[in-house]
Amino acid sequence: MSSICQHVAVVIVAPKKIELPWNGNQRYHLCRMTDYKNILVGGATKQGKTSLLKFELSALLKEGASYNRIIIVLDPKKSGEYDEFDGQVQIYKRLLEIESVLIALEGRIYSREQGESPVPRIYLFIDEYADLVPGEYMGETANTHLDITQHSVLTIAKKGPLHGITVFLATNRLKKGVLTEELLNCFPIRVCFRVALKVESDLLLHDCKNGAELLTNAGEMLIQDPWSSSTELIRLEDLKG
Prior knowledge:
The protein has helices spanning about 5, 30-35, 50-60, 95-115, 145-160, 180-185, 200-205, and strands spanning about 10-15, 15-20, 20-25, 25, 40, 70-75, 90, 120-125, 165-170, 190-195, 220-225, 235-240. It is an alpha/beta fold. It has a single domain, classed as 3-Layer(aba) Sandwich (Rossmann fold), CATH 3.40.50.300. Helix 4 runs parallel beside helix 5 (about 145-160). The longest helix has 19 residues, at about 95-115. The strands form two sheets. A ten-stranded mixed β-sheet has the order 2-1-12-11-10-5-9-8-6-7, sandwiched between helices. It has a two-stranded antiparallel sheet with strand order 3-4.
C-alpha cells in the first residue's frame, strides 16, 4: 500500500494548512467526513486512485461491527489489488458476476422503494469503471452485458444513497463517453489526481482555473471541499515523515 494510504494528512487551502480531524488514533476518512456521500475518483494511471479507495475500504473495515455493513468490490480490470481483503469483503472480477451483483443491488433499491425494512448499509467500490462501459472494455461497442452494467451503475449511484448504498467509483478515463453528465451529478464528492490534460480535470472539477493537470507528484489530489458550501477546491498531499 502506498504512502498516500498511510499518511493522507494535510489539507491545503491556500494560503493556510488545515489538519484533518482525528478519531482516536486515526484521522477521519473521507467517506465519514462527507456523511457517506458517493465519491468519484479520477486521475491518470498510478497516481493514487486505487490507493485512496483501499484506504477508504480499510477505514470502513475498522469501524463498527461487520453485521452493520456489507462491502462489495467490483474489479473488472482484474488487478488483484484488493485480494488482501478477500474474506472481509465481497470481491467480483468477472463481467457476468459483476452484472449479477449490480442487478441484485438494483433489486434491493426497488424493494426499499416498496417499503421493505432496511438491511445493513452497503458500500460499493468500482475500480475501474470504464471497463464496464461499452466501447471502453477491450473495444467492445455491442455488448449486452456492458449495456446492463452501465445502466445499473447509474441507477445505483442515483438512487442508492437514499436506500443505504454508498458508491466509490474510480476511473482513469476522464471523458464524456465514460462520465456522462447524468452520472457526474450523482457524485457530490469528486477527487482528481494528476491528469495529462486540462479537459480531463475540467470534466471532473467543473472548469476550475488551476486544475489537476498542474499537479506535479503522484499522490497529490484536488477535491471539491466537502466541509464548506463554497466551490473552492482544496488540495490534499501526502504528509511524509
